[in-house]
UniProtKB/TrEMBL annotation:
Native organism: Enterovibrio norvegicus FF-454
GO annotations of cellular component type: plasma membrane
Compartmental location: Cell inner membrane
Annotated transmembrane regions: 31-53, 59-81, 102-123, 152-174
Species lineage: Bacteria, Pseudomonadati, Pseudomonadota, Gammaproteobacteria, Vibrionales
Name of the molecule in the record: TRAP transporter small permease protein
């Protein structure tokens, strides 16, 4: 019974934010989640305007897609901050707590390398969508009737979010190594 209690308590602590950045991401993410309601409301507005008044809008679809896409991009770092990201637990749950510590460290090293490579790629993509080849600021637009700069803004957001992800992985890796060293001393 005590073993089950210890496991439940350990998993409870794993679900909590691990540091100041995780807490900030969760706070901001919770506030931004209200934008899903805005997306639903403007989509409802579009349906009413289109079918009740035969006056479709030119801005709703792109704006709703931009808001939803932005929220899903931010959702990645939110899931990592809340420790709700997808993981394969088949092996993880079958090994000892000490081996889990090794797996956590390996996971964070590989995740950090992957996030770093993605960040570099996102930088190149965002830079291309924000600046003309001659260096002038020129945001890439959608090319639609609205012609909003949503593509450039999304690419910039992806870059910023990936930079945050690199910092998250770094902080989590430091915490895992510290936890590993402390458990070694015990």
């Amino acid at each position: 019974m005590d073993n089950k209690l210890a496991k439940a308590e350990a998993s409870h602590h794993e679900d909590e934010p691990r540091n100041f950045l995780d807490r900030a991401i969760i706070r901001v993410g919770d506030a931004l989640s209200l934008l899903f309601i805005v997306t639903a409301l403007i989509s409802f507005y579009e349906v009413i305007m289109r079918y009740a008044f035969n006056a479709p809008t030119t801005w709703v679809h792109e704006t709703a897609s931009f808001i939803g896409g932005s929220l899903f991009i931010i959702g990645g770092i939110y899931a990592f901050a809340a420790n709700k990201h997808v993981r394969v637990v088949l092996i993880y749950d079958a090994v000892s707590p000490r081996k889990r510590q090794y797996l956590n460290i390996v996971h964070h090293i590989i995740g950090l390398a992957f996030a770093g490579m993605l960040t570099y790629s996102a930088y190149l993509t965002a830079n291309e969508s924000w600046f003309a080849p001659w260096g002038d600021l020129r945001l890439e637009t959608s090319g639609s009737v609205l012609n909003a700069p949503y593509p450039a803004l999304l690419k910039g957001l992806i870059f910023v979010v990936l930079c945050i992800l690199v910092i998250q992985f770094t902080l989590h890796l430091i915490q895992e190594i510290t936890r590993f060293r402390k458990s070694k001393d015990v």
